[in-house]
Structure formats: C-alpha cells, structure tokens
Amino acid sequence: MASPIISPLRRVRPASIRPEPLQPGDNLRGAGLMTLSMIGFTCNDAVIKFVTQDMPLYQAITLRGAFVMLALILLASRTGGLRLRIPPAARAPMTLRLIGEVGSTLLFLNALQRMAIADLTAVMQSLPLVVMLGAALFFGETLGWRRILAVAVGMLGVLIILRPGSGTFGIWSLVALGAMLLVALRDLSTRRFGRDVSSATIAFYAAVLVTLTGLVFSLGQGWVLPDPVQIGLLLLSAAFLTVGYMCAVAAMRVGEIAAVTPFRYTSLLAAIVLGLVIFGEWPDRWTWIGSGLVVGAGIYTIWREAQLGRRR
C-alpha cells in the first residue's frame, strides 16, 4: 500500500528543508496536529498515573510497551517504514538516544506517581530551552545573548516551580529534573541521524528497550492480575502514546517550525485540566508564575529563531 501524504513512518528530510512551497492552511493543520499530539502525550501520562495507583509501575510499563510495539509493527507493515538494520554511522547516536529514552521514561513515570501532573509537565516545558543550550555546547550552534537570557529565565521558572528549600521540594523534584535532562539527551542524539533511518525504526527500538527494561525491573516488584478495566486503560494509554508520536512527527512536516512549535505548550493546559478532573490537583501560585516564565521564554526563543532565519 502506498504511503499516505502525511506519514510519520516514512524517511523524511530534516524539518528545515521543505521539498515544496508552503500551502495555504499548512500552518493551521500543523498547529492542530501539534495540539493533538500534546493532548495525546498528556492523556497517556494521566492514564498511567491513574493505573499505577493499583498496578505496579514496571508491570504497567511492560504491558503498555508491548501494546505500543504491536501498534508500530501494524503501522509499519502498511507503510514499509520499519527497517531493523541500523547503519554503522547511526549506531553511536542510536545508543545515546536509547539511553536517554529509557532513562527519561523510568525517571519521568516514577516522578509522575509522586508529583502533581501539572507540576511535572511544567518542568518538562523547559526542554526546548535545554536542547537549544545543548546544541550550542555540543554542536557549535550559534546562541546570542538574548536567547541565553531566555534560557536563564526559563531555568528560573523551573526553580520557582520546584522551590528548592521549601517543604514541597524533595527527591522527586530532582528526579523530574533528571528526566528532563535525559529527554534532552534523547533529542540531541536524534539530530545526528541521517535520512536512511526512519522514524518508525527509531520509535520501535525505543519501545523494545523500554519494554524489556520494564520487564526486568518488574521481576523485583511483582505482578498483579490485571482486570479488564486496567487492560483497557493500558490499551488506551498505548493508543494515546502512538497518536501523540505520529501527530508530532506529522506536525513538523506540514507547517513551519516557528508556527507549529509554540503549540507544544498546550500540553501544560491539558495537564492542568486532567490533573483537576481526575486527581483533584490544582497548581499553586508559584507553579503558575514559574510556568509563565518557562512558556514565555520558550515562545520568545522560537520567535527569535524565526527572526534570525528571515535575515539569513
């Protein structure tokens, strides 16, 4: 079967290289896809947080991972995007990416069990700033004083959310920071892949290793017999995760990066709503203030990058 016009499973060019001119409505479609992606990821987080109230975390990771692998195999079988062979040049970045993927998943989900979903999501909103700083440090990308200042403001926002020295700060706040840094490692490593490695291949290897790691850790935690509701929720979680991934890739292929990327921050709004409705959580004023700084700094850096791009 031929690949659809928008398929996250095909090999594609880097997002900065467009094969054809932007069409009317592309940015709107890209924004919609990015919003749907963020809602999918956040709903996945909420479902896992809910399920692991009664099911051991690593059992949930293992079962969800198995469902995600099945979904990826079925999707790839229709589009031909899954190739298990990794070119020699891609093996080092793949190793780093898998370390970041597995480590961030374990730290994030452990923190998610103990932190309010909106607080944890707010910390993760600083990721684009950290990735930008990492690209400057490790890849030699130019970073002017304005964007360095924006990174500093974003990090200040994270500190306000976590409030070191207060009664709300603890080991899980540090775990959340560790998860964010490992996601940055994952994203920076992804930049080193060539066009001969498909998105489906990258996602499949990540799903396999996360699932196997969850299985190993679950042996020391024990398993419970899941009931039909829990199985259904884990299937729903896997569906949310798969849709989130597919829409995120498609969004960056449809619209301009500067127009689409700000809609990543809709995940914070989704986390606030889900936290209130499902868990009765409501962010305090410090989380609101810190989140405002993080989101504001992130949107400024996107705008600044767009301005610099027009001058080149």
UniProtKB/TrEMBL annotation:
<feature type="transmembrane region" description="Helical">
    <location>
        <begin position="231"/>
        <end position="251"/>
    </location>
</feature>
<feature type="transmembrane region" description="Helical">
    <location>
        <begin position="147"/>
        <end position="163"/>
    </location>
</feature>
<feature type="transmembrane region" description="Helical">
    <location>
        <begin position="263"/>
        <end position="280"/>
    </location>
</feature>
<dbReference type="InterPro" id="IPR000620">
    <property type="entry name" value="EamA_dom"/>
</dbReference>
<keyword id="KW-1133">Transmembrane helix</keyword>
<feature type="transmembrane region" description="Helical">
    <location>
        <begin position="57"/>
        <end position="77"/>
    </location>
</feature>
<keyword id="KW-0812">Transmembrane</keyword>
<feature type="transmembrane region" description="Helical">
    <location>
        <begin position="122"/>
        <end position="140"/>
    </location>
</feature>
<feature type="domain" description="EamA">
    <location>
        <begin position="171"/>
        <end position="297"/>
    </location>
</feature>
<feature type="domain" description="EamA">
    <location>
        <begin position="29"/>
        <end position="162"/>
    </location>
</feature>
<keyword id="KW-0472">Membrane</keyword>
<feature type="transmembrane region" description="Helical">
    <location>
        <begin position="197"/>
        <end position="219"/>
    </location>
</feature>
<feature type="transmembrane region" description="Helical">
    <location>
        <begin position="98"/>
        <end position="116"/>
    </location>
</feature>
<feature type="transmembrane region" description="Helical">
    <location>
        <begin position="169"/>
        <end position="185"/>
    </location>
</feature>
<dbReference type="Pfam" id="PF00892">
    <property type="entry name" value="EamA"/>
</dbReference>
<protein>
    <submittedName>
        <fullName>DMT family transporter</fullName>
    </submittedName>
</protein>
<dbReference type="GO" id="GO:0016020">
    <property type="term" value="C:membrane"/>
</dbReference>
<feature type="transmembrane region" description="Helical">
    <location>
        <begin position="286"/>
        <end position="303"/>
    </location>
</feature>
<dbReference type="InterPro" id="IPR037185">
    <property type="entry name" value="EmrE-like"/>
</dbReference>
